[in-house]
Amino acid sequence: MIRTMCIKIGVLSAMKEMRTVDAVGQVLCQDITQIVRGVTKNARFRKGHVIQEEDIPVLLSLGKDHIYIWEENAQEMHENEAADVLRELCQNDHMTATEPKEGKIELVATCDGVFQVDEDRFDAVNELEDITIATLAQNMPVKKGMKLAGMRVTPLFIAREKMEEVRRTAGSEPLLRLLPYRKDLKVGVVTTGTEVFLGRIKDTFTPVIEAKLKKFGLTITEHRLSDDVTEHTKAAIEELLDLGMDIILCTGGMSVDPDDRTPAAIRDAGVDIVTYGASVLPGAMFLLGYCEREGREVTVMGLPGCVMFDKATIFDMILPRAIAGDRVTRKEIRHFGIGGLCMRCEVCRYPICPFQK
User: Mind telling me which residue stretches traverse the membrane in this protein (predicted)?
Assistant: First the structure.
């Protein structure tokens, strides 16, 4: 047996030669290239690969009767094991993990929902040298089967002491979470505007809302029309609250014109308004509030006219979180200004785009 010493990123590690037939479970310390004339010249096995029983005949066919492997070191951890530590610190409910591949593990959604990251703790972990965790954007709506995150360490081997530091930095709670969409939600819509109420013009806003709700498997449970009288709109909202709606959407009358009175009606119906106005374009006149009814929290939104015309607005950002039961704060909505300018692309790919990222 031949032993040599290798320097890797400041860590002294032992490397040894051994017979290939005895190498099951050992870790390769070099790429093994396969050359087939006219077909391929590429690495058949990568450095860091854990040798399996079925690999032995392949290695022998490549002329490798002896190979170099990393000698076990109790003070160090292989990249696959280290990736599993990161996986443990990240994985939460509604996520499944892939098997380690070349030192990387990915997390995949097991349901539709809203993906979230504990940003402060997450950043603290990623600040540590040799640690890499990459995720989807904060509050991104995801579908079952989508990749949520990938993680790995930089070196082939990393000190166990370093991974303990990672654990301490991350804390006891998972760094990631996936909020599943709630089922069987009751959604009420109040359409305001005397011109619609009297039938002078056709209601073209409600079909837009129906189409957006359909993407989440929801329909409009109750629909009310109201003229521009504040008391009438208030009464319609209160009726929907009494009927047990989980989400109430109000359209029309959301600008600052004197006859736009929907925000006042929402307030008068007892809704605690988080914000009237948002740092998002399109969506500056958006209203968000919450109301407690019989032990449940009802989300109430006032939708500006842009929701009817633009493919992606603040409503598309808030609706998934409302369906998941996640309360949005005024501070968050004001922070939306960074990334809150829609580029109005000819082909809209939201949420796979920079809008509100």
Answer: none
